[in-house]
Amino acid sequence: MRIHKLILTALLTALTGLLLKSGCLAGMKISPVKFEFNPGKNQKYITGAIQINSTGNEPLRLRIYPGYFEVSNEGSIRVDFPENYPRKDIKNIFFNPEEITLNPYKKQIIRFTIPDLDKLPDGESRAVLFIENKKVRTKKLPSPKEGINANLLIKNRFAVPIYVSKGKVLRKGNIEKLNVKKLEDKDYEFELAIASKGNSHIRLNGVVQLIHKKEIIKEFKVKNIPVLPDKKRTIKGKMPPDLMENSSDYTLKTKLYYLNEDNRKKRLIKEVKFSPETI
Asked: Residue range 220-224: average pLDDT?
């Protein structure tokens, strides 16, 4: 009987600053985890440098290449787009080196330059530099059918996001929704929807507070969450039922802020009152 092989390929991607905040991945540490540039009016180019430190006992063979990214409403990362997709990307980015072999406990600097800033539109343009481990790991999967071998090919790559905001920049956000609902497991969950209305992303910080009888009984931290221009972001948090009494009234309140184009704090304050027995 002829044996057929089925090979499944998966590319695992982690976008720094959004998923892998520590900057560590598979035997290496990367710093910084993101870049945000606000070039001056007459500035022609910008430069940056990424340091990669080996933390493992084996040499790493790495490939560096550029790409584009967006962030979904739920915070997941999208890096693959159809050809006709209207991207707000940086067209030209030069970097060196393109491939390296990093020996154990050594470091390497990746330098990049973004030229022709005058050709970028007003507002935000974006890119990522992927740092990909060229070593491929193979993982056997349960055979989907007799006579078929299934393998998962896994590549690890790390992506460093680059934001460039130039010209007439507007950073503006607002709260579109704040509510509480009861889940099937008897927990409660709040849902907060933030919209970015400018041409450059806003970055949220602050807290969402659960208040009972003027006392804060639960606080959910919101830290360094980006909302891309013309996009929305949904933030959710679970509230265990033992926090709440059915006959009582509660308040859910946001105390959030972001920095606008003038680097001034803009606060996003909203509150809703609810009773568990009426949800």
From this structure: 96
> Quick count: other Cβ atoms within 10 Å of Cβ 33?
19
Enumerate the β-bridge partners of residue 193.
Answer: 177, 234
Distance CA 161, CA 69 (A): 8
Query: Do the Cβ atoms of 131 and 160 come closer than 8 Å?
Result: yes
User: Around Cβ 178, how many Cβ atoms within 10 Å?
Assistant: 19
| pTM assigned to the model | 0.84
Q: How confident is the model at residue 142 (pLDDT cuts 50, 70, 90)?
A: confident
The per-residue pLDDT for 35 is: 97
The predicted pLDDT at position 23 comes to 63
Task: Report in angstroms the alpha-carbon separations of 142 from 3, 6, 139, 155, 203.
Answer: 15, 11, 10, 20, 43
Handedness of CA 82, 85, 89, 90 (dihedral sign): positive
Q: Which residues of 191-203 are buried (b: 16+ CB within 10 A; e: fewer)?
A: ebbbbbebbbbbb
